[in-house]
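Supplementary Methods. Inverse-folding protocol.

Structures were first reduced to a discrete structure-token string of length 264. This string, shown here, constituted the complete conditioning input.
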């Protein structure tokens, strides 16, 4: 079976996108998902996204991590899938997307996509983690821990990111680990160690949102605020009539086709 796909990225967060309205993608085969997600032996991505039918929205988004596990939400992935759905005539420019975290609304304006996220929950400041930095927590569709640091560049994110991601406070499922800094101009910078990727990614939409929400809660930033991601791209987080929004670019990389069952 040949599976057409589109490779996209949102702020450097890269994804394999598949139109699966036929519900024929072999989602049960986590080994196949891991192979195509591999950057050494496959296509390579931070996540696999499927467009599927929905009874409550324009379509349903399924988000699968490179390890084969499914997550409720991905902000940058949702922005990419919104542009793809609009460009392919699957959904209008203003659309509703069914996700595991609930319904989200996306608006496409050329390559800039604004996402209206579900309400942040479980917000907690100054967790007792044993780290030297203040650590906060919020769920912006998926769980995020945010450590506030002075020097982002020198962090060995592979080690400290894994330690925070697997901290006992977040058991059994863990949390995404973000390390953030408030810049002199009032903007924010962030590096993210993503759960399910188990490595640093160039951006994380729900992570950038978590950083902005928590910085606002602490009085360190005022919305709308620009968040600088590790890949050199910016995301803008705002609150419009009480709804948290995430805005940024969504770009095409290439189209391709993969044969299910083949080694790729």
């Amino acid at each position: 079976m040949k599976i057409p796909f589109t490779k996209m990225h949102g702020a450097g967060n890269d994804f394999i996108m598949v139109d699966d309205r036929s519900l024929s993608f072999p989602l049960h085969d986590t080994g196949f998902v891991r192979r195509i997600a591999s950057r050494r032996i496959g296509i390579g991505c931070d996540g696999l996204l499927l467009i599927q039918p929905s009874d409550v929205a324009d379509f349903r988004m399924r988000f699968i991590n490179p390890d084969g596990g499914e997550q409720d939400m991905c902000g940058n992935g949702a922005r990419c899938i919104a542009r793809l759905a609009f460009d392919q005539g699957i959904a209008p420019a203003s659309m509703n997307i069914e996700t595991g975290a609930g319904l989200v609304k996306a608006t496409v304006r050329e390559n800039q996509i604004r996402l209206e996220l579900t309400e942040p929950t479980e917000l907690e400041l100054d967790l007792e983690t044993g780290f030297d930095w203040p650590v906060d927590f919020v769920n912006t569709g998926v769980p995020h821990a945010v450590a506030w640091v002075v020097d982002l560049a020198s962090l060995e994110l592979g080690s400290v990111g894994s330690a925070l991601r697997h901290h006992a406070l977040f058991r059994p499922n863990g949390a995404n680990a973000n390390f953030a800094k408030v810049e002199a101009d009032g903007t924010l910078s962030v590096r993210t160690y993503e759960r399910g990727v188990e490595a640093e990614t160039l951006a994380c939409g729900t992570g950038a949102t978590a950083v902005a929400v928590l910085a606002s809660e602490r009085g360190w930033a005022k919305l709308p605020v620009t968040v600088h991601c590790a890949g050199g791209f910016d995301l803008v987080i705002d609150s419009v009539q009480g709804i948290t929004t995430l805005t940024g670019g969504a770009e095409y990389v290439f189209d391709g086709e993969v044969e299910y069952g083949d080694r790729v």
